[in-house]
Structures are given as C-alpha cells and as structure tokens.
Write a structure and sequence with these properties.
By secondary structure, this protein is mainly β. The chain has no helices and eleven strands. Bound molecules: FE2/S2 (inorganic) cluster (FES). GO terms for molecular function: 2 iron, 2 sulfur cluster binding; metal ion binding.
Length: 106
C-alpha cells in the first residue's frame, strides 16, 4: 500500500465530491464535517459515476436510483428501492499532511 497526494485540502468544501485517478484506480474523495474520505467511484448498483452524486445528512447519495452509502467505510445505508442488496463501495484510508490530502492505494 502506498500513500498518494491527490489534492490540496483547500480545494474542497464540506459536502464536495472530487473524482480522482490514483495509481490507475478511479476514486471518489468526499469531504464531510472537515474530514476526508475516499471510496471507489462507481455505484455498485449500475456503475453510475458517484462524483455526479451528492451528500445529504453525511451520507453519499447516488442520483441514479438513490442508493445511499456511508462515506466513512463505503457501507450501504440503503439500496435503491426494490433492488435487493447491493455491494458496499471500496473504502480507502485518507490523511492530511502539510495541507495535502493523501489516499492509500495498493
Ligand atoms: S446506479 Fe446508483 S442507485 Fe442505481
């Protein structure tokens, strides 16, 4: 596992979503209450790009059919209505160093 610098801390406000490619992996960076989280970019329901989604009450919403994920660990809070279970998002560790946001990716 390696830490990669992805962006400046100051580039994001609370509730922002940021799409990044890190070591060939497509990742979503999320800022919520001053903290940074990182998950896989695509919804596990129908592969919708979650950088087009939004945050609501500290949860990440896919705008396609409204699957809801916890940005802290990628877990499914609620699947789309009538879809049955869906897989969680992959979750990546993040840290802030000297004003930079870093993500740990293998
Ligand atoms: S593609 Fe995300 S909820 Fe269907």
């Amino acid at each position: 596992m390696t830490w990669y610098r992805v962006l400046k801390e100051s580039q994001m406000n609370d509730g922002d979503l940021f799409k990044a490619k890190v070591n060939g992996k497509e990742i979503l960076i999320i800022k919520d209450e001053g903290k940074f989280y990182a998950t896989s970019l695509y919804c596990t329901h129908e592969q919708y790009d979650l950088s087009d989604g939004f945050m609501d009450d500290h949860k990440l919403i896919c705008p396609n059919h409204f699957a809801t994920f916890d940005p802290k660990d990628g877990s499914v809070v609620s699947p789309p209505e009538g879809s049955g279970d869906i897989e969680p998002l992959k979750s990546y560790r993040t840290k802030v160093e000297n004003g930079d946001v870093l993500v740990e990716v293998d």
